[in-house]
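Help! Submission page says 'invalid entity' but I think these are all valid:
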Amino acid sequence: MLESYLPIFFMIAGGIAFGVVMLKLNEFFGPRRPTEEKFSTYESGMEPVRTARERFSVKFYMVAVLFILFDIEVVFLYPWAVSFRELGYQGFVTMFVFIVILLIGLYYVWRKGALEWD
Amino acid sequence: MFSFAPTIVLFPLLGFLFLGLFGARLRNEKLIGILGSGTVGLSFLVAVALFIHMLGLEPDQRKGIVELFSWIGTFTGTASSVNVSVAYQVDQLSILMTLVVTGVGFLIHVYSIGYMHGDPGFWRFFTYLNLFIFAMLNLVLADNFLLMFLGWEGVGLCSYLLIGFWYDRKFDVGGYAPGKAWTNDAAKKAFIVNRIGDFGFLLAMFLIVVQFESLSFDAVFGRVSVMTPGSDVMIWITLLLFLGATGKSAQIPLFVWLPDAMAGPTPVSALIHAATMVTAGVYMVARCSILFALAPATLQVVAVIGALTAIMAATIGLVQNDIKKVLAYSTVSQLGYMFLAMGVAAFTAGIFHVVTHAFFKALLFLGSGAVIHGMHDEQDIQKMGGLKKYLPVTYKTFLIGAIAIAGIPPFAGFFSKDEILWKAFSSDQGSVLLWAIAAAGAGVTAFYMFRLVILTFEGKERFDHHHAHPHEAPKTMTVPLIVLAFLSVVGGFIGVPESLMGGNALEHWLEPIFAPAMTTLRATPHHGGITEYLLMALSVGIAVAGIYGARTVYMKRQELADAWRSKYRRTYQVLWNKYYVDEAYDTLFVRSTVKASETVLWRGLDVSVIDWLVNASAQGVAWLSSKVRLIQTGFAQRYATIFVGGIVLVLFWLMFK
Amino acid sequence: MEITISDLWQSAPMVSLTLTGLVALLVESMKGGRTTAVYGLSLAGCALAFVFSLWSLGSEVIVFNGMILQGGYASYFSMVFTSSAFFTIVLSRPYMQRLHREQGVLYILILFATVGMMLMASAMDLIILFLGIELMSVCLYVLTGFVRTKVTSNESAVKYFLLGAFATGFLLYGIALVYGTAGTTNLKLISQSFAQLSGNSLFLMGAGLLVIAFSFKVAAVPFHMWAPDVYEGAPTPVTAFMSTGAKAAAFAAFVTVFIRTFAITGTPISEVVAFIAAASMILGNVTAIAQSNLKRMLAYSSIAHAGYMLSGIAAGSAEGETGILFYLAAYTLMNMGAFGIISWVEQQDDTKLTFDDYAGFSAQRPVVAAMLSVFMFSLAGIPPFAGFFGKYYVFLAAVKADLVWLAVIGVLTSVISVYYYLRLVMVMYFRDGNATIEERVPGFAFAVIGVIAALVILLGLYPSLVVDISKTFFKL
C-alpha cells in the first residue's frame, strides 16, 4: 500500500533538495551587500512594522473588492472550461446567464464611477 | 327558504350598526324612527314569509338549521373537542317566538317614535332597541346553548342600558325606603340580580358540556335517551337552568329587579320587561323541555315557584299606586303562571300564554305610557282619575287589555290562562292545591287590574288642572295601541281547546317540539268532560267577582278602601312593603357583602397582599432590568466574547448530556 | 442532472424577483436613471412575486435536482418576505428623502436581500441555505450602513458585519460537521437517517452549531448582542425590514432544518433550543423595560418575540410549526406597522425617538395614535389582535410537547412585556404634550399602514385564515 506513495516521496525530497541546493549555490557564488531594506520581510512594498492606525484611501478597497469578485469568477470559469464538452449546451447557457449577471454588475459599477481612480 | 333565516337577525344588526355609527349625525327624528322600526319590520316580514312557507310543509319537515360559520372549536379532533357554530334553528317554537318578538317589537318601535319625540337621546334609544331585537332574535333562533347565552347576555346588556337610559333622572323607589334613586341604580340592580341567574345558566352549560360533549340542541337532546330519568346530574342541570330562568324572568327569589326596572322609558318596559325579554326564561325551559322531563323533581320546583310567584306578585300589585309598578307586578305574576304551566308539563299552554301575554301586556304598558305622556310624566294613579274623557282611544284599548288579562272570554287571556289552570288541576304533575293558588291569583289579578283602570280613567279628576293638561297621544302611539288591542281580542283563537269546539291549532303546531318530553313523562291527554267545564266556569266566575269587587270598592263605595286599609293595617303594610323582600336581601346579602369586601377583601387582601405582591414584583423586575441593561456595553469585542460563551455552553450541553 | 424550463417556471417568485432586481440595476445605471422608476419597478416586482407565490401556494414541488422546494411552505414564506419588502420600500422613500439620501440602489438591495430570504425558506440543501443566508446578510450589512453620513449608522453596520461574519464561520463549521457525519448536505437524505445520526456526538455538535448560527440571525440570547445596537443605528425602515423579513427568513431556516428535517422532540437539541428560548424571553422582556428609546425597546421586544417563537421550535411538532408560521405573519405585520409610524415621527438628527416624545400624540394625530395602539396591543398579545393567537399557538405547542415550564415562562414574561408596550399607549393618550408628525406623510404610505392595521385586526378575529393554510405543510 505504502509503496505506491514512493514516487511522491521522491518527488518531494527532490523538490526540497533542489530548492536548498540552488539557494546555497546562490549564497556561495553571489556577491552580498546587505542593507536594512534587504533584510526586512517583503510586504508588497509596504513597511512591515509601523503604526496600524493609519488612514488610506477607500479607493484601494474598491479595487480590492472588484478584484476578488472577478477572481472568483475565474474560479468558476476554469472548471467549466475544462469540462465544457461534457456539460454541453446547457452548461453553456448556464454560464452565459452567470456572465450576463456579472456584466450587469460591472456596468453598474462602471457607470457609478467606481473604476475611475480620481 | 330556511336559508333566509339569518336575514331575520341581520336586519336589526344593520340597523344597530348604522344608527350607532351615524345616528348622532342624522338629527332627523323621522329618518331615525323609520330606519329603526323599518329594520324590525323587515325582519317581521321575513319571519311571516318563513312561517307561511312552514305551514305548507309536512310537520316533520318544519325545521331548518342554517349554519353561518364555525365560531369556537377546541382541540379539534381530540376526544374532548367542543365545536360551536353560529347557526340558527328555525322550527315551530322559534318561529312563533320570532313572530312575537319582531311583530310586537315593530309596533313598539313605531310607538316609540311618538313617545320619545324631542328626547335628546332619540337616536341612542333606537340604537339600543335595535341591538335588543338583534340579541333577542339570537336568543330565540340559536341552535346551541352558547349562542343562546350570547343572546341571553345581550338582552341583559340592553335591558341595563335602557333602564338607565335617562341616566340624569331619578325615580320613586317606593316601598321600604320611600324616596328617589338614580335610574342607574335600578339598572345596576337589574344587571347584578340577573348575573346570579346567569351564573346558574353558565354552570348548567358546563355540566352539559361534561355530560353530553356538545352544546348544540340537536346533539344534546338527541343523546338524552341514554340518561336515566331523575338522575342527579339531570336534576342539577335543570335546576341551574331554572335558576337562570328565575333571574331573566323575574321569579322568586330573583324577581326584585323587575319593579325597579320601570325607571326606564315606558316603551322599554313594554318591549323588554313585559313582552319579550322576561319571557326568555319560559322559552328556555320550553326549549329544554326534554331535559326537564328527565328531572321530575325540578318540574315540581318549577311549578311551586311559579304558583307562589303568581300569587305573591299579584297581592303586592293590589296596593301599589304607581301605574307602571302595578303593571310590573302583574308581569311578574303572569310569568309565574307561565312557569306553573312549564312545571305541570303543560308546555304548549305556557308558550300560548307567552304569546297572548305579549299582546295584552304590551298593550297595557303602551297604554300606561300614553297616560304618562298625556299627564306630563305623572305616574301616581292617586293623582289621576276621570281620564277617559281626555284619552278616549287609550281608555278603550286599555280596558280591552284589562279584560284580556282578567280572563274574560273570549278575550285572548282567557284561553291561555284557563288552559294553564286546567293543566294545573288535571296533569300528572299538577294538584288541586296548585290549581287553587293559581285560581286565587286570577281573582286578585282581575281585582287589581280594574282598580288600576278605575283609579286612572273613571271617577273624579284628582289632578291639578293648573299643572296637568291631559291630552290624547299622537297617531304613531295610538295606532300600535289599536293593533295590539285587536290582537288581545282575537289572539286567543289560535289555541281554543277542543272542549270548546276549537281545533287547538297551537297545540298541533307545537306538538313535534314537545313530543319527546311528553313521551318521557308518559303523559296522556286528560279530557275531563264535565270537570273541565265546571272549572272553566269557576275561573270565569272568579274573574268576574274580582272585577265586580274592584268596581264596588273604588267606584261605588270608596270609603270601603280606606276602612279596609286601617282595619287590616298590618297586612297592608306587608303588601305595601312588598313582603320586605328587598329589605331582607339588603340586610342578608348586600350589606354583609359590602362590609366583608371593604374590610377583608379590600383592606385585608387587596391592599396588603395583592397590591404588595404586584408592587414588589414590579419593583423587582425594574431593578433587575436596570442591572441587566449594563451587559450591553457597545463594544463588539465584548459581544463576541459572550457569543463564544454561548457556544461553549451549547456544545457542552450537547456533548455531555 | 439537468435544469429544465419547468424548474424555472416553478420558481417563478424567486426568478421574477431576481429579474426585477437586475432590470432595476440597469435602469439605475443608465444616464439620468430616475430613482422613481427604480422605486416603482421594485414595488411592482414585489407585488408580482407575491402574486406568483399566492398562485403556487397550493402545491409543494421539489425543483433543481432536489436542491430547492417551491410552492406550499416556500410560497407561504415568499409571501411574508415580499410583503415585508414591499412595506419597507414604501416606508423608505419618504424617510430617505428627508435625509436627502434616496438612491435607487437601496430598493435593489432590498430586492436581492428578499431573494436571499426566499432561498433560505426554499432550501432543501444546506449549501443552498448557506447561499441564501449570505445573500441576505451581505445586502443587510450594506443597508444598515446606508446612511453614510451618520456615525451611528456606520458603527452599527461594522458591528453587524463583524459579528455576522463570526456567526457565518460557525454556520459553515456546523454544515461541515453534518456533512462529515451524514455524508450528504441534502436535507431530505439527512432526515431519512436522522434516527441513527442523532446518537453521533459529532453530528450533534454540527446541529448545535447550526442552532447557534440561526439563533444569531433571529437575535436569540446569548447571540443577540448585536441586535439592540444595530436596530438603533440602522435607518428605521431597514430596522423594520431586519426585524420582520430577516427574522422570518431565519425562522424559515430553523423550521426547515429542525422541525421539517430533524425530529428533535425529546433530544438534547430540543433542550438547548428551549433554554435559548427561555433566556431570550426573560432577558428580552426584562431589559426592554429599562429602555427609553423606542427603537431599542422594539429591539429587545424582538429578542423576546424570537424567544416566544423558539418555544415552537423546541416543541418540534406540527403545532409548533403552524404556530410559528402564524406568529411570523402576525409579527411581520405588527412590527412593520410600529416601526413605520416611528419612522414618521422621528427627526433627521435621531431625536423624537423616546417615550416622552409621544406625549399628547393622540390629540394631535388621533388616527395614527389609534393604529400605533393597535400594534402595541397586538405586540403585547392582547386579544382580539393577531399577536394573541401567535402566542397562543406556540405556547400550546410547547405545552403539548411536555415543555410546560417553557410556556409558563412565556406567559409570565408576556405579562412583563405589557408594561412597556402599554406605556407607549399611556403616554400617547394620558400625558399632556403636543407630539405630532412634523413632515407630511405620503398618502400611499399612510394607506399601507392602515391596511397593515386592518390585517392585524383581521388575523386576530379570524386566525384560521392563515392557520388552515399552514397546517398542511408539516414534514417534507
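Support: the input was valid. A stray whitespace character was the problem, and the output above is from the cleaned input. DSSP finds 25 helices and four strands in chain B.
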